[in-house]
Design brief:
The chain has 221 residues and is an alpha/beta fold. It has 8 helices and 7 strands, in the order βαβαααβαβαββαβα. Strand 5 and strand 6 form a beta hairpin. The protein is globular, with a radius of gyration of 17 Å.
Length: 221
């Protein structure tokens, strides 16, 4: 293990494959994959979770201050660990809150063409309780409309419906632009463009390998 703790973030719009990329990085480099969506689901029983639930149930984005409270609590518990953030920070306010507790080493930004994102999101169905995501084109469930593990029904989020996708992507882009500019100005932003996670992955692997020793080879992942 490297003596310095590695703190990294993966940025990307909805449908960009952030989750898949984070899983590959976490497996290959032994980093903890910290997903804001996962922490939100796990927090639903607590005080902050009750606030979050009101938004999630209506298919709305959880406000900055709620997500920030959840994430700061989780990151405080992990001061001695290598980690990789997925889905946070999404706004400049969140990035500034993150600055107050740690210094990032590396920010990976995934640039995926708008049409690809639109197609992916419109084909996306989720299992609400676990957050498992299926894509009807390249990762369908064994039985249409049913979660593989629980047998419970899948739903299409309101904001994954074709008519909502374009507005959602525009909203993400507007919020993310100052975050990307901030990390670019610090010289820690690395952007990767493409339409397939597997084709972008070797370049991401090479970048990470220059920062921390891998525990799996590129091919093993």
């Amino acid at each position: 293990m490297a003596s310095k703790l590695l703190r990294a973030v993966v940025l990307g719009p909805p449908g960009s494959g952030k989750g898949t990329m984070c899983e590959k990085i976490a497996r290959s480099f032994g980093l903890q994959h910290l997903s804001s969506g996962q922490f939100l689901r796990e927090s639903l029983g607590g005080e902050v979770g009750v606030l979050a639930k009101q938004y999630l149930e209506r298919g709305l984005l959880v406000p900055d201050h709620v997500i920030t409270r959840v994430m700061m609590t989780e990151l405080e518990k992990r001061r001695e660990q290598h980690w990789l953030l997925d889905g946070f920070p999404r706004t400049l306010g969140q990035a500034e809150a993150l600055d107050r507790i740690c210094e990032l080493d590396l920010v990976i930004s995934l640039n995926i063409p708008f049409e690809t994102l639109k197609d992916r999101l419109s084909a996306r169905w989720v299992h609400p309780a676990s957050g498992r995501v299926y894509n009807m084109d390249f990762n369908p469930p064994h039985v249409q409309g049913i979660d593989d593990l629980t047998g419970e029904p899948l739903v299409q989020r309101e904001d994954d419906k074709p008519e909502a996708v374009a507005a959602r992507l525009r909203k993400y882009k507007d919020a993310a632009k100052p975050v990307i500019e901030l990390y670019k100005s610090r010289g820690i932003l690395h952007s990767f463009s493409g339409t397939e996670t597997n084709k972008i992955w070797p370049y991401v692997y090479t970048l990470l390998s220059s920062k921390i020793p891998p525990i799996l080879s590129d091919e093993e992942n």
